[in-house]
Amino acid sequence: MESVNNIIVDEERPLKIYFIPYLASGHLIPQADITRLFASRGHHVTVLTTPSNAQLFLKSNPYLHRNYRVQIFPFPADQVGLPAGIENLTGIKTFDDSLKLHSGASLLQEPFTNFIEQDPPDCIVGDFLYPWLHDLAIKLRIPRFAFNGFCLFTICAMESLRLHRMEPTGPYLVPDLPGKITMNTAPPKFAKDFIENLLDTEAKSDGILVNNFIELDGEEYVEYYEKITGHKAWHVGPACLVRRTTEEKAVRGTEKSVLNVEDCLSWLDSKRVNSVVYVSFGTICQFPDSQLYEIACGLEASGCEFIWVVPEKKGKESESEAEKEKWLPKGFEERNKTKGMVIRGWAPQVLILGHVAVGGILTHCGWNSTSEAVSVGVPMITWPLHSDQFYNEKLICEVRGIGVEIGVDEWSNDGYGEKEKVVGRLEIEKGVRRVMDGGDEAEGIRRRVEEFKKKAREAVQEGGSSYNNLTSLIHEIRRLIRHKRLKLHKFE
Ligand code: UDP
């Protein structure tokens, strides 16, 4: 126990931490894992969220009813014009509805604030999509850490553009980065401005939490970030490794898996090691039928075994043959009965990726999928769509050499499928073959990703880089609490 100007600070007392994740699976899932990391160290975790998103934190949670609780707030669906139960970007199929979801999320500010003010925590970990948390934390004089779901390499590239006030319109060299990174496409202005405003408020927090391990981002990017922003980044991941049992890994989303997990695993058991390519584009992407058709043809032409996750169409309980033939070539399912599996809906991704039969992932480079693939040593075939994904692709393919590019050089504006240009079957087939055919290039990639898998596991074990970072972060939170209370004391 330490006494600072009559303020008693108990170094052993568990911290009371509130987590406030944004209402998108890509943000909720990693934060559900990060909350468990804090709970595993004995700290008191409270998650503030809405009824259907709460399931993600409640299900198969070994800390629940011990030092972990979920505070549930109704989502104002009727006020923003969304159907009841739609409270997550994953359930949203149009750009207009995504704006309604954002409005609903903004309306949560008031009930969240009331709750936090009535019973303030020692510290807040808040999503960067809730910039209003900044003023609240200042008012309550409590530390605030931010989470944006990106890896630090990508944050550095974004910060570099922000600080240099660059407005690229075509291919550009990212200024000043520790490595020479040339992007073959530029973010649209609206997307760049949106992110930069959020990064601006994020930089005023007490630090950011990163769901990655330093060895993958690179120590030089940690130094670069601290140098250019004067801000601190805490690598605590890959947080997905906190889940150890099959059940914990199976219930990672808000959606229920559309297929029986055991059936899926026993199908994979029947396949050779590294013979199956897993295809998924995350929780937001809605490809048009024409693009799905090209994927089907490309996969079939590659001759590879596959699991292909295709999000369900809104309001379509069942699909007529004629509707299906718009996106799936005639006879595709029959021809590929033993060779492939099309999952129309939510798949238990972490379990699938972790199976030895899976030898590659065709991915949109969402950071969670990337981090999950690296954690189990699965090479990537990269097809970025928007936001952080083009930078992630650079880290995967050029910097770390753990994937190959399909060759996409155009942003899909918002992930809701109105993009005209489709990626052709030949490019898809070529990308899949490069990773799955076992040639020299593929072997090199497989060897490197296997090394990063090992490093990822070491990082989260006792004494590893992410494990030690979490310990230092907890010390830092205590130091900040002391510092902020002392300042308060001086004002009194
Ligand atoms: N995911 C899943 N099953 C699915 C689709 C996605 O479990 O059918 C999970 C995936 O494992 C990852 C997250 O959803 O944890 C997607 O996050 P990512 O950052 O890769 O992409 P986003 O959805 O944010 O674009």
TrEMBL record:
The keyword Transferase applies. InterPro entries: UDP_glucos_trans. PANTHER family: GLYCOSYLTRANSFERASE, SCOPOLETIN GLUCOSYLTRANSFERASE-LIKE. It comes from the Eukaryota. Signal peptide: none annotated. This is Glycosyltransferase. Keywords: Glycosyltransferase, Transferase. Belongs to the UDP-glycosyltransferase family. The keyword Hydrolase does not apply.
